[in-house]
Structures are given as C-alpha cells and as structure tokens.
Amino acid sequence: MEQNYFTGIDIGTTSTKAVVFDVSGNVLAQKSIAYEMFHPKPNWSEQNPDEIYEAVNQCLTFLDKRSLLETLSFSSAMHSIMVVDIAGKPLTNLIVWADNRAIDIGNTLKKSELGQKIYQRTGTPIHPFSFLCKILWLKENEPETFRKAHKFIGIKEYVWHKIFGQYEIDESLASATGIMNIKDLCWDKKVLSLVGIGEEKLPKIVPTTFSRTHQALNYIIGAADGPLANLGTNATGKSKLAFTMGTSGAVRICVNEYYSDPQMRTFNYLLSENQHVIGGATNNGAVVIQWLKEQILQTTASTEELIEKAEKIPAGAENLLFLPYILGERAPVWNADAKGVFFGLSINHSQAHLIRAVMEGLILNLYSVGKVLMEKFPVEEICASGGFAKSDFWLQLVADIFQKKVVVSANVEGSAWGAVLIAMKSMKLKPKNILKNVGKEFFPNPENKQTYAILHTKFERLYEKLKDEF
C-alpha cells in the first residue's frame, strides 16, 4: 500500500508541532500547541509533562479528523528528565534543559578528572543541563523521590510509554544524556555506578528507526531535534554547518566520525549509529529578544518592528557589545554561572543600538562554537533553520559574522522533516521528486568582515575577564 502522508511530531520547548508531508517533502498541513515553562525557584525550569502529552494528542486529533495520519515519527528537545513510579505516574515535573539547579554538582564534576573521562566516553559536556547532573541532584536533594523512582526518563519517553506502555529511548536522545557510552551504544556502567542506579532504571536504548504500531498507525521513535535539523536541512557532510535558532540556538556538523574537543567546548551526539553530530548549543536564543522586549524595553512593538530598528544601526552597534548569558550558558563556555552584560554603553546609544547589540551578541556567541568546528572541518556553507530563518536581517548577520554563505532550506520545518526522513529509512522508502532544497541564499558582506572579527575577539576577551566575577 502506497504511503501518502508522513507526520513529523516535533516536541519542542515552547510547543509541540505536528507537520504532515508528502513523499516529496511538501508540507500538506500542520498544527501547533503551545505550553508554558515555569520557574518555581531560582535556577529551576520545569514543565507539566501531562500538558505536553495533551498537546501531542491535540495535534494528532486535529490531523486525524482530516484523515491525514498514516506514518508518524518523533523529534524531541533534548536534556529533559522526570521521574515516574511503577504505574507510570510522574513523581516530578519535567525538568528541562534550561534548569540550572544542579549547578554546584556540574561545576565540581566538570573540574574533576572523572568528569573529563565521562565526557570522553559519552560525548556530552559536563553541565547542569545534562540528564546525568540532574539525576545526581535528585539523589542528593530529593532522596525519597530518588528511592521511589521506577524510571528516569525524558519527555519523549513519557509520551511513547503513554501510547505503547513501553519505556524505550532512541540512541540519539540517549547519546545526549551523558550516561550512554557513545561508542558501545549502551548505558555506561561506570557512569551508572557513579549515579548509583542500574540500567533497569533507564529506558531501553533502541535505534532511531525503531517502530511500533498503534490503532493501525505506524510510529517511528525518531531522534533528537538538533541532529534531525541537520538531516532535515541537508546539512550533512564536513562542508555544511547547520545553524538553528529558536528559543535556544545551536551550530552542528554531521560527519561519520567521533570527535571530542580537548577543552570540552563541543558535544558529540548521534543521528544514527554511524552519523555523529558535533557542535554546541546555547541556552540563549530568541528568548533573549523576548526578554529585551518585555523586561527591558517594555514595549508593545512587535519583534519584527524591533528588528527593523536594529537594521538601521551600523555593524558593531557603534561599539556596544552584549554578552547574551541571561540563562547561564552551555556551549562554548559551559558556565551555568555566566550572566548577561551590556558593555560600552554611552549617552549616544538608543533602543535600536540595544536591539542590534543583542542580536549580534547571540550570533557572536554561536560563532565561538562554529570557529571550533571550522578549525577541524572544511566548512563551506551554513544551512539555516528555525524561527529566525524567516528574517533576512538575522540571516545576513550570520553570513557577515561567520563570513560564510548562508542557505535557507526551502522547508524551514527541519526537525519535523528530519523525523520523516528517519521514518522513510525505517520503511526502506526514499523521498520522490524532492524540490530544490535551497530557498534563499545570503553572502557575507566583505565590508563588515573586519568589524566583526575585531568585535568577536573583544567578545571572547571580555568574557574571559569577567567569568570569575559572575
């Protein structure tokens, strides 16, 4: 029977989105349901797992009423953790990637020889965001919850269990926990010993192409959203760097080799057993623009209107520089204590200067990650995706700061389409008559090359001078 519809279910930080594609990658329909993140204590970032599961249900119900469901495949945000009892009932909220409650544990482990060895075996930098550090925090601070735990899982595993009654995790998400041995594709015994649990407390690791059937629908377990964005935007191979910015942001390269950075600046996750996604993610993406708009500028102007103002300011924001670490930071500094800084403010700076400096600071930070990758791999172009890719100005900033050509996928739903490509691989199908993958192209402005080279050097030097003061 010919497959007509493939649905990518992208469980993100701020919403779940279900996107229906045909076999050529054309978007036929989509539905998105948003939900909140809440912060009950300083450094805590949580969500209600049942609210997210209900969002998945609502998206699928919407598409099912239109008879658009046949094969479904999952994408999911990484680094979430929750505890469930033997009945599958949550004992905690979902603790998400932005949560820094394990900051002391992460800092101590990162500086140790043991932390370095764990990074080398797992590919996941030691940081409070990781599944590993959050389990250690629960063990130390909520021993009764730790004792009662039947399983430690992430949000996709919770949704999967709700549907099938099985605790299973794809090898891509498992590779981002800091507990999986990335070479042996199994839970690392030495890390388990450190945590004080057996592998029975964790989901079973399965390939990204693993499938189950429910109510005549074929479900593919899929992978993590970052690696899937590489696949979905055709950013595979040593010459292509994926650049994504939504609530957070990331740069990644997909190659057929394992790489760990001696300075622990980059991660190594899996797309599949033989495809390694190397790069770094930032806590601080478009959420910083939202913070600036609502908390600092306190304006009713739209984000688009603010960006238009920034575009009128010269490159470099007339010597105003912004360190964008309002949520601490993952790559490249892996410092949960880092803070945001405006540097160089003068009486001549306006609202528009602040906006431009924030936008440039976000890209300069990701360039620090990209520079590490570009020193290792012969990158020729950047493949952009995420909500920011709808703005020409954002994309031109990336081209100017990275001094590389930026191409935008004709399909900006990179992670959802990547999930569908995994489903097709599972079913031994190939996409047909794929339309030209490239939408717009942006080329670096040589007039801005020197400005941004100087600004980036200053950006990194300023962080080094301030890091011990945070």
UniProtKB/TrEMBL annotation:
Protein EC: 2.7.1.17
PROSITE patterns membership: FGGY_KINASES_2 (PS00445)
Q: Which CDD domains match?
A: ASKHA_NBD_FGGY_GntK
Where in the numbering of this chain does the Carbohydrate kinase FGGY N-terminal domain appear? 5-209
User: EC top class, in one word?
Assistant: transferase
Q: Which Pfam families match?
A: FGGY_C, FGGY_N
Which Gene3D superfamilies did the record assign?
3.30.420.40
Q: Does the keyword Ribosomal protein apply?
A: no
Q: Where is the Carbohydrate kinase FGGY C-terminal domain?
A: 242-426
Keyword Transferase, does the record have it?
yes
Q: Which keywords describe this protein according to UniProt? A: Kinase, Transferase
This entry's Gene Ontology molecular function terms read: D-xylulokinase activity
Spell out the family assignment given in the record's similarity comment: Belongs to the FGGY kinase family.
* Protein name, UniProt field: Xylulose kinase
Which species is listed as the source?
Emticicia aquatica
Source taxonomy: Bacteria, Pseudomonadati, Bacteroidota, Cytophagia, Cytophagales
